[in-house]
Design goal:
The chain is an alpha/beta fold. The chain contains 22 helices and 8 strands. It binds guanosine-5'-triphosphate. Guanosine-5'-triphosphate binds near residues 115 and 249. Keywords: Cytoplasm, GTP-binding, Hydrolase, Nucleotide-binding, Ribonucleoprotein, RNA-binding, Signal recognition particle.
Length: about 450
């Protein structure tokens, strides 16, 4: 996952500071040296690092900080605010034309993820009840038009193409007219990319620009390429006046340099971040939330938003009722896993929960999609009757389930044991909250409950 190294290093610096009652000037200087190294190692542009450290230092050595009750926390807060500022301060939203359609021109090098991002953007706009038109303007890469058509089919968005024999400038012009004629409120123009920035490409992009007069020129950059991504952004910006950047592949193990430098170097805000190959893996970029993810403080807001747009609330309510009445079966368990999976890779979800990222690093908690898959395989190998009455799953049934799911008896035993514990806890919980419980009793029992508790998927 992106930023892992940076997060670990920063957390080490901060835990040293946090442990101190008083913080001396030397402590701050030492911490700043380590933050500086951590940023450089994460491939952040060296000028950006220098300015960043100067700003943090200026704020951190003040008297108020030293004499505050929790100097360590105050310094973390300063770093958090400066990181947020570095990435643009607040969210930079997509422009909207006064008179539709709003025209989005997608530019970038080959392989950065331009075509995929065009599809993801279209899907995001559809979710907001818009009707985007995709325009296939990359006539040079043989499969690009087909790729966009396939994406369009998947999300049921119209794709405008004139094949690969018409000039991209003409395609863009006619595409825009087509959108006007058909009442599309957004036009997303996918343009060609090259392996390197070259004059011919820029000229073509400038011509398209002057014909369609876009509301947004979005540069798609691959965050895995680190400083190169920043150089590419600077170059495009000099030639084209970008209005925003989309960072792709933030799900990979990028060290984070691009995300942290691109705004400072080009002045161009990051508008979206892409965290996976799937079509719903695009997120609006929130600098403050990204900063808190980098500092290992989680990002509950994004998680809640994801849940709101992906989880079936009726099903969630029904699940809650079952849990309260301790009617929870393995069938419900499967359903719940399905809901969680809709939110994205489990690894990414964990990073959004405060503290979880750190637990993951400590290897206390091993939850990944592969393991979720094994758990699912076990449950799928149960008969309907077994799923509904987990108590009937005796030794010989367990052996059959292990063989059927390609796992081991130990794994099946563990899952069933944890499932039982989970049910018992739910039962205790609902008893506590029930008429005989009362608040004080509930609190008392809650304290005892934590002891035997294990995370169900460990
Ligand atoms: N893991 C991951 N892969 C991505 C992401 N975005 C795009 N990709 C992958 O990157 C590859 C290149 O994406 P494309 O959209 O084909 O690239 P492109 O920029 O359109 O390339 P050209 O059309 O040749 O300019 C594809 O395999 C995508 O699935 C992302 O956020 N995460």
């Amino acid at each position: 996952m992106a930023f892992e190294g940076l997060t670990t290093r920063l957390q080490n610096v901060f835990s040293k500071l946090r442990g101190k009652g008083k913080v001396s000037d030397e402590d701050v200087a030492e911490a700043m040296r380590e933050v500086r190294l951590a940023l450089l190692e994460a491939d952040v542009n060296f000028k950006v690092v220098k300015e960043f450290i100067a700003k943090v230092k200026e704020k951190a050595v003040g008297k108020e900080v030293m004499e505050s009750f929790t100097p360590g926390m105050v310094i973390i807060d300063i770093v958090n605010k400066e990181l947020t500022d570095l990435m643009g301060g607040s969210q930079s939203k997509l422009a909207k034309a006064n008179k539709p359609p709003t025209v989005l021109m997608m530019v970038g090098l080959q392989g950065a993820g331009k075509t995929t991002t065009s599809g993801k953007l279209a899907k995001m706009l559809q979710k907001q009840n818009s009707r985007p038109l995709l325009v296939a303007g990359d006539i040079y890469r043989p499969a690009a038009i087909k790729q966009l058509q396939v994406l369009g089919e998947q999300i049921k968005a119209p794709v405008f193409t004139l094949g690969d024999q018409t000039s991209p400038v003409e395609i863009a012009r006619q595409g825009l007219q087509h959108a006007k004629d058909n009442g599309n409120d957004y036009v997303i123009i996918d343009t060609a990319g090259r392996l390197h920035v070259d004059e011919e490409l820029m000229e073509e992009l400038r011509q398209i620009h002057s014909v369609v007069n876009p509301d947004e020129v979005l540069l798609v950059v691959d965050s895995m390429t680190g400083q190169d991504a920043v150089n590419v952004a600077e170059h495009f910006n000099q030639q084209l006046d970008l209005t925003g950047v989309v960072l792709t592949k933030l799900d990979g193990d990028t060290r984070g340099g691009a995300a942290l430098s691109v705004k400072a170097v080009t002045g161009c805000p990051i508008k979206f971040a892409s965290l996976g190959e799937k079509l719903d893996a695009l997120e609006p970029f929130h600098p403050e939330r990204m900063a808190s993810r980098i500092l290992g403080m989680g990002d509950m807001l994004s998680l809640i938003e994801k849940a709101q747009s992906n989880i079936d609330t009726e099903k969630a309510k029904e699940m809650e009722r079952k849990m309260r009445n301790a009617e929870f079966t393995f069938e419900d368990f499967l359903e719940q896993m399905d809901q969680v999976k809709k939110l994205g890779p489990i690894d990414q979800i964990m990073d959004m929960i405060p503290g979880m990222g750190k637990m993951k690093q400590a290897k206390d908690l091993k939850v990944d999609d592969k393991q979720m898959g094994r758990i699912e395989a076990i449950v799928y190998s149960m008969t309907t009757e077994e799923k509904r009455n987990p108590d009937m799953i005796n030794h010989s049934r367990r052996k059959r389930i292990a063989t059927g799911s390609g796992t081991s008896l130990a794994e099946v035993n563990r899952l069933i044991k944890q499932f039982d514990e989970m049910r018992r806890m739910m039962k205790q919980f609902s008893d506590m909250m029930g008429p005989k419980g009362g608040k004080n009793k509930a609190m008392k029992q809650l304290k005892g409950l934590g002891k035997g508790m294990k995370f169900p998927f460990r």
